[in-house]
Every structure is written in structure tokens, then in C-alpha cells.
Amino acid sequence: MNEKRPVTDWLPITQKEVEMRGWEQLDVILISGDAYVDHPAFGTAVIGRIIESEGLKIGIVPQPNWRDDLRDFKKMGKPRLFFGITSGCMDSMVNHYTASKRRRSTDAYTPGGEAGYRPDYAVTVYSKILKQLYPDVPVLLGGIEASLRRVTHYDYWKDQLFKNILSESGADMLVWGMGEMPLREIVRLLEKGVPFSSLKTIPQTAVLHPADEPLPVVKKWEDLELASHERCLRDKRSFAANFKHIEQESNKVNARRLIQSVDDQKLLINPPYPPMTENEIDTSFDLPYTRTPHPKYEKRGAMPAYEMIRFSINMHRGCFGGCSFCTISAHQGKFIASRSEESILKEVDAVTQMPDFKGYISDLGGPSANMYKMKGKVQSICDRCVSPSCIHPVICSNLDTSHKPMTEIYKKVDAHPEVKKAFIGSGIRYDLLVDSYNKNNDGSLDEYMEQVVCNHVSGRLKVAPEHTSDDTLKMMRKPSFKHFHEFKKKFEKINKKNGLNQPLIPYFISSHPGSTEEEMANLASETKEMGFKLEQVQDFTPTPMTVATVAYYTGLHPYTLKPVYTAKSKHEKKNQHLFFFWHKRENYQAIREKLTKLGREDLIEKLINDKKKHNKRVALNERKIATSKRKFREDRNWGKRKK
């Protein structure tokens, strides 16, 4: 496909491509830790196309070499306005390391899946290089790595608190969250001649300000002072208490500006923009993407992350689940921004016209598949809300959880003459589909589930109960496991009714704050009894800007400041993870010893003895009980006769 299109259809990534466009100097240069894929699922492409749509000359330097003479950072010269930096679609440390801190051997955002094309702490490394080479050019940070490190945060890989990323990197400004709205405002003000150093009151940005100077004033903003970085270093309790404010203010309609002292400066984190309107998010998705990697990569092999999403459609942004271990709401917010049907169907048309499209859309979803078009029934109630989750501990009575808009759009995509099948690859919130948890009574839940199970499951349906213990699930901000039992029955009933044989695949997490070894043993026993041999499992990885990470580091729940048990040592984490694999014979002895130590010998037979032995022992026990009862009756009758 790429041979049929001129290279100028992509944004330029070499000086030669800049010259092909007749440009002498670029207005903005983006540095990215990912290879350049011109697709709306890749942040660098979105930001690049937005800057282009504002009439500016934009170039991208993807995966620059930071270990040589730095020629990649110099090849496009000095931009007129600023450098933009992102580590890519993932935090570089999550990209590089497993939960056990083992170095990964592949990188899904690099051609051929080859590792080693970005540094650890990529945003900070790139920024320091640019500040060394071009000290007079402003540097603007964005993307998930910068966004989630915008304030004092715990770094799992170094096991210490870091300052905000502006202080660490030397950059001039940070755009946090989804960057379209603040970026457009930044560009427009710069084009009007406003100095970059004066841009301190743009919503959804963060800047450093001299501590001895008056703060910039915005009449409608209120300020909230956080515990200083230095105090957080001394006192874990203060660090934990900070998080509650950070999370709440990041997800409020009328948020306060956050202020944190660090060194001789004050970090200013400005309130967010309102959620994007339908027109605003449509505009972002309707930009002229080629939807493919840059032609430069053709001989280097397929890019795993692109291959996974090349035929997918993202219908909305945001997630109101607020799960304790997840960073989606910290970056995208809890309010759902949904695209119009017209924009979605337009993208479906574009996908079907790709030469290698075989009729199958891999995903028609979002951060959580079944939240499209969901919002508050009465906006004024949402305007006053401070809860980080709309569905925990119960579903908010003001939340419209109708699944009708999704069912309707699924049917319209199914009706497309070039679409054989559209799968739902995104995670489905099963708790929104059971009557015991979601009291929605418009009939849309059953209709949606029937539509999904019969038409949109790619062999098996994956959902994420995450744990079986109600105490741990409460810590996770997830519903009781009893609701998963109900969902499983509903799923199997629809399968049977329609003559289908599609397995249900549950996801689980070990070593999450609050989870104990005994709870993991119970998890193994309960899921085995339900017929599962677990495969989609992971160990908890602490990432910046989550409740669970704060609890992991401090040992305190950031909302209650009460102690929370957390498995932290390799030994403790390994012991919890072990119970996922009760079915492996090499784990039998270790599991037997653990259960004996826990005083849960009752689980040994359930977990690690084979079914025949288990049934034989059950039958033997039943015979023993029957014999005992018969003997008791005989003895009792003999006593009566004797009297």
C-alpha cells in the first residue's frame, strides 16, 4: 500500500522529507519513543496532525539515538516555536520491564518488535539532551509517561519518590491528560506573539513558577496546596494524603489548581478542560491519517502494536470505572467523550478500503468497550461530584447505563457490505451487564449481551473480575465476585440458546494491595470449581498515579490513611502468583506446604489431587460417615433392648 502513496502523505521524519515540502524551518518538532505510525490510536500522529491542522510546519523524530553523537536530535535543526516530547503510547519503564523488573526482550512499538530503541525514562532523557543542545528553545512534554509523573510520584523501578517530571527533566511545560485542547490553545497563543514563558494559565497544563514571585491569577480558579516534595520524602503519610486530592481534582468538572512546593519553585497543575464534545473528538479522529506506519519501516518487519489495532475502531475515550490499579482515568479522565455515529462509520469505511482488509474489524470499542455514550442524566449533579468512580461501591443513580447506542452502532457496522465480522476486542465491564449490580431496566443489557455473544466474540470472551476476595475487590474498586458468577451463568445461557461453544476467559491479578496468600488460595479453589484453568493472569505492577501504587509504597490507603497489607518482597509475590498455576505438577509440593502453613489443608485435596483421587476420597469419606451413622443407630438400638 505504501508504494502507491507519496511519502509526503505522512508527516516528515527526515530532513529530506522536510525539503520535499519546500520548508526551510519547522515550527514544531516532536520527539517520540515510538516508531511513527500515522494512525489515530498513536498519540504522536494525533498531536502531529493537530499541529498541522493549525497551519504549522511539523516534523517528527521517532526513536532518536540517544547514545551516539545525537545527530538525530539535530537533523531537523531548531524549531521556530518549541520541541514536543513523548515517550510514546506507554510509559517507557512499563514498556521495558515486567512486574518482577525483568528486562523485556521485545518492544511492540518498534518495527520487528525489536527492543532497545528508546531509553529508560525516555521523556527525561530526551528533554535533557534538547536542553543541552538548544537551551533557548522551549520544551513541551506530553503523553502518558509525562502525564502520570506530573507531581511527586513513586517510581517502582528505582523504589523511591521522584520529583515531578518538569523538575527531573528541565522541560518548560507539561500537557497532562489527552492533549488536543490545551495544545491547540498553546499554538494559537504562540502564533499571536505570546511568549512561551508567559503561558502559565492554560487549563490542563503544568508549569514551574519561582516560589518568591506572586502566582498568576485566574479569577474562577481556586487553589489547593499539596504537601511539598520535601515533606513527602520525610513522611509517607503526607505523600499518601496528597493522592486523594490529585485524583479528585483530575476528575472534577470544576477543579482547583494544585500547587506543590519543590526546591525553590512551585509546581502549578492547572485544572482540566471539560470533557471533549462530540464535535471536538470527531475532529481529532477525522484528521487525514494514512492509517499506516511510515514507509521507512517497510523492510524492518511488522510492528506488533500496529498489527493489533490496524483494523480497529476506537469509539470513545475515558473510563468511569476508577479501578485502583489502572491509569486510564488518571490520563483520559472518568467522563466519557463519545464520537458521533457518523464519524465512527466514516472510519469503518476507511478501514474497509485498505487493500489488505479481509472483512474483519478486530475491535469496535474503547478503554472499556461498553461505556459508549454513557454520561450523567443530570449534568448539575456531575458538576458537584468528587467521586473517582461512577460505578463503585455502587453504580451512581445519575449514570445513564443504557447499552442501546452501542447495540445500534454494532448492528449498523454489521450491515456494512464489506464487513464480515466486527469483534469486540476491548475489555467489557461485565458488572454493567448483570441485573444484580446494574439496576438499569430499559431492557438494553440483555439485548446488548445477546448481540455481543452471538455476533462479536472472537472465539472466546475476555472479562476482568481481577480477584475473588470481596475485601481485595473493594480495595481494587471492583464489584463482589458473586456478580461474576451471575455473569457466567448469563453468558453460558446465551451460548446454549444459540448453539455456541465460546469459553469465558477471566483476568486476575496477584499481589495487589490488600491481597493475601490465603485469598489467593481461595481464588485458585473457587475458579477451579467454576471450571477455569487460569491463563490470563499477571502480578501487580506499581505505576505512577494510582491508588494501588500509593498503597504499595506507603502501606496506607490514600483515602482513609489506614494500613493496607501488600506483598512486596519477591518471595511474597512469588507465593501469591504460584496459586494461579495449581494445575502444574511441579508446583504441587510448594502449594501443599503453603496451604499446610496457612492451616488450609482443606484446599489441598481440592487443588492439587487429581479428580479421580478426589472423587474416590469423597466416596470413601461418605462410606465412613454412613458406617459411623449405622453403627451409632445399632448401638442405640442395642442399648434400648438391654433396658
General description of the model:
Helix content is 38%, strand content 12%. The model has no long low-confidence stretch (mean pLDDT 94). A nine-stranded mixed sheet has the order 2-1-3-4-7-8-11-10-9, with helices on both faces. It has a three-stranded parallel sheet with strand order 18-19-20. The longest helix is centred in the last third of the chain and has 32 residues. The chain folds into four domains: 268 residues, Rossmann fold, CATH 3.40.50.280; 148 residues, Transcription Regulator spoIIAA (2-Layer Sandwich); 149 residues, Transcription Regulator spoIIAA (2-Layer Sandwich), CATH 3.30.750; 32 residues. It starts with 14 loop residues before the first helix and ends with a helix. It has 25 helices and 20 strands. It is of the alpha/beta class and 643 residues long. Strand 1, helix 2 and strand 2 form a beta-alpha-beta unit. Helix 2 runs parallel beside helix 8, helix 16 packs parallel to helix 17 and helix 23 packs antiparallel against helix 24.
